[in-house]
């Protein structure tokens, strides 16, 4: 299936020319198998296009790896509807689910994909991706095969048996990592299960992974479905408007604030509130700091954009957060990297605008349970004439401008052949490789040192230009996620930047990207191990151990030298190794001109990082150790715990890691 086919619009009820038409029955019913009904229902769902001038399929396609448990039932159903609901073949179940999740994130949760697998390992391979989608509040429909409801063959191949409960299968493991779970044991259940699933997938407060476990005998079972169940429909997305009492309480706090700070989370992007955020911040003179999920809510050069916040934050944003008297947290669940493990803005009143009250009830916040855009528009209307203290706004402008200058210096540092480059050097080279990188490129990353450096240094010029999965910090998401982003945004250059550790964990979707014509530019930073965790290990007093390859148990041949370029070429990509930043810049030009996925590897320093910014992050250090370094680290840890317990005892910012 090529890129064009992925994005062509089709008639809602059309099917492949050689498909057998369903047999209509009297009384307005149509006889279909469970699998056929499910696929037909998904294909009938439409969504308004971004320009508002038409509709397009809600589901961009179905990723499928067929096997025992889904090849017959789901396979035949997907074949019948392969034109209006494309089926895409991947190479790893976890990876294809990551691709589906990234597709939804790149569409700001307005379009999505489904994933189907066999039973057994095919199904359980989805669990990590389900957890990732759950943590990041992203929609994906998971359709794992399941064991026979009849239990005629018992146990069936790949069945996980529970000695105490005959109704349990491996798919019950999805329950804690799904926002909605159902096991379809009769075709009629689809009449309630599918609308419920759609509601969760399209509701701002409920959004997350949905799992419908599909026993293989039920997939093939036929039933007379009401014909109107499959009528094409335009899906409406659900998000709450602010309540008057909660809005009034928030306005009362803001009117008393002199030094407010906005924390922009992913909810700003998902509610398409970037313009509303810009207007509100500009009108009221409020600086904005961005979480990982919220980065790109404001253009990087907006005068009030203070940059990244928290453990991976800029010195400008963290200084403002430390001194703010009121924090307006919009669309963020305020996880520990954002709040410095609850030490960064302990002195401030917190107002949390969030579609999900559970996510808003963090940091003892006053909650406005509402869609970000609706809430910002309502606050703007309710606060005419109110403005932050003018000296505070001026300070924010100065700090933000200074940080932008520092970023320019860090990403344009002169290079010496005797010193290995670090992540900041690579980020600078990527951005210099296109005059329009800030607005045209989409950078994709997930784990290791790179999310910290990208959070600080990447210049995102428009919403969605920064795509870093950091809620679950899942190694292996990067290339698979890049594929999903490219399928969602084929007109943009998608730049996947990852470390050698993540590449080795999951790289198979390079082959899928070549097969689909979904070109990626992949930059692999080879620091010969898990450099990020190696540094964290030593910061906690530990000895370098089991992270960098040189510190791992090795046989007589030693650690392997991995030729990432050769490996990528074996998967069908074009690839090369760059020896330095100058060679990397030249390689990036060739990559941009290439007709397929292009992989560039470069050796980097595992120890160097950007010194500017950062904040303390709580990682528990052992209370007892024979090593002086661990005991010293524990003493520093205890001091930070004491400072958090009594923040008034010190006016100084906590030391950062």
UniProtKB/TrEMBL annotation:
Enzyme Commission identifier(s): 3.7.1.22
Stretches with biased composition (Basic and acidic residues): 1-13
Domain Thiamine pyrophosphate enzyme N-terminal TPP-binding: 62-158
Gene3D superfamilies: 3.40.50.970, TPP-binding domain (3.40.50.1220)
Enzyme class: hydrolase
InterPro entries recorded: DHS-like_NAD/FAD-binding_dom, Myo_inos_IolD, THDP-binding, Thiamin_PyroP_enz_cen_dom, Thiamin_PyroP_enz_TPP-bd_dom, TPP-bd_CS, TPP_enz, TPP_enzyme_TPP-bd
The UniProt record lists the keyword Hydrolase: yes
Alphabetical list of CDD domains matching this protein: TPP_IolD, TPP_PYR_POX_like
Residues annotated as domain Thiamine pyrophosphate enzyme central: 247-379
Superkingdom of source: Bacteria
UniProt keyword list: Hydrolase, Thiamine pyrophosphate
Ranges for domain Thiamine pyrophosphate enzyme TPP-binding: 447-601
Region named Disordered: 1-27
GO-annotated molecular function: 3D-(3,5/4)-trihydroxycyclohexane-1,2-dione hydrolase activity
Family indicated by similarity: Belongs to the TPP enzyme family.
Name of the protein this chain belongs to: 3D-(3,5/4)-trihydroxycyclohexane-1,2-dione acylhydrolase (Decyclizing)
Originating species: Paraburkholderia strydomiana
Gene: iolD
């Amino acid at each position: 299936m090529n890129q064009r086919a992925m994005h062509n619009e089709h008639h809602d009820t059309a099917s492949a020319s050689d498909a057998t038409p369903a047999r209509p029955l009297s009384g307005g019913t149509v006889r279909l198998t469970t699998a056929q009904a499910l696929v037909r229902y998904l294909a009938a769902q439409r969504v308004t296009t971004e320009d508002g001038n038409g509709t397009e399929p809600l589901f961009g396609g179905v990723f499928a790896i067929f096997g025992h448990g889904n090849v017959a039932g789901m396979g035949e159903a997907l074949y019948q509807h392969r034109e209006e609901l494309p089926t895409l073949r991947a190479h790893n179940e976890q990876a294809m689910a990551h691709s589906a999740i990234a597709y939804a994130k790149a569409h700001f949760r307005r379009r999505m994909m489904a994933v189907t697998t066999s039973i057994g390992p095919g199904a359980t391979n989805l669990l990590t991706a389900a957890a990732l989608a759950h943590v990041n509040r992203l929609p994906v429909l998971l359709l794992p095969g399941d064991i026979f409801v009849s239990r005629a063959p018992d146990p069936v191949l790949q069945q996980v048996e529970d000695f105490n409960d005959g109704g349990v299968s491996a798919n019950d493991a999805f329950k804690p990592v799904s926002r909605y779970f159902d096991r379809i044991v009769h075709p009629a259940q689809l009449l309630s299960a599918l609308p419920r699933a759609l509601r969760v997938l399209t509701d701002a407060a409920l959004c997350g992974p949905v799992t419908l476990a599909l026993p293989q005998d039920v997939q093939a079972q036929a039933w007379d479905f009401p014909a109107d169940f499959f009528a094409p429909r335009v899906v409406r997305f659900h998000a709450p408007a602010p309540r008057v009492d909660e809005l009034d309480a928030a306005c009362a706090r803001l009117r008393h604030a002199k030094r407010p700070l906005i924390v922009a989370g992913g909810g700003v992007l998902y509610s398409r509130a970037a313009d509303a955020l810009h207007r509100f911040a500009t009108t009221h003179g409020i600086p904005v700091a961005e979480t990982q999920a919220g980065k790109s809510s404001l253009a990087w050069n907006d005068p009030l954009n203070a940059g990244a916040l928290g453990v991976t934050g800029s010195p400008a944003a963290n200084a403002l957060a430390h001194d703010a008297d009121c924090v307006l947290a919009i669309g963020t669940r305020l996880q520990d990297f954002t709040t410095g493990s609850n030490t960064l803005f302990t002195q401030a009143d917190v107002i949390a605008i969030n579609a999900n009250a559970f996510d808003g009830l963090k940091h003892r916040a006053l909650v406005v349970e509402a869609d970000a855009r609706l809430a910002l528009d309502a606050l703007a209307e309710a606060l005419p004439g109110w403005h932050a203290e003018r000296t505070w706004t001026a300070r924010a402008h100065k700090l933000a401008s200074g940080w932008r200058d520092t970023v320019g210096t860090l990403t344009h540092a002169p290079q010496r052949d005797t010193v290995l480059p670090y992540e900041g050097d690579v980020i600078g080279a990527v951005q210099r490789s296109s005059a329009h990188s800030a607005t045209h490129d989409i950078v994709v990353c997930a784990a290791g040192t790179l999310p910290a450096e990208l959070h600080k240094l990447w210049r995102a010029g428009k919403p969605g230009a920064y795509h870093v999965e950091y809620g679950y910090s899942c190694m292996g998401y990067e290339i698979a996620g890049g594929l999903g982003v490219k399928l969602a945004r084929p007109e943009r250059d998608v730049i996947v930047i990852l470390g050698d550790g993540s590449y080795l964990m999951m790289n198979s979707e390079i082959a899928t990207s070549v097969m689909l014509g979904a070109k990626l530019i992949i930059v692999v930073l080879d620091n010969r191990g898990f450099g990020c965790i190696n540094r964290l290990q030593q910061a906690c007093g530990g000895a370098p151990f089991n992270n960098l390859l040189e510190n791992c148990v090795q046989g007589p041949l030693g650690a392997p030298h991995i030729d990432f370029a050769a490996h990528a070429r074996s998967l069908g990509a074009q690839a090369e190794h760059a020896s330095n930043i100058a060679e990397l810049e030249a390689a990036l030009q060739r990559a941009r001109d290439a007709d397929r996925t292009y992989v560039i590897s470069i050796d980097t320093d595992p120890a160097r990082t950007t010194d500017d910014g950062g904040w303390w992050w709580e990682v528990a250090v052992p209370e007892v150790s024979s090593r002086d370094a661990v005991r010293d680290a524990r003493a520093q840890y205890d001091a930070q715990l004491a400072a958090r317990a009594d923040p008034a005892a010190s006016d100084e910012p906590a030391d950062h890691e």
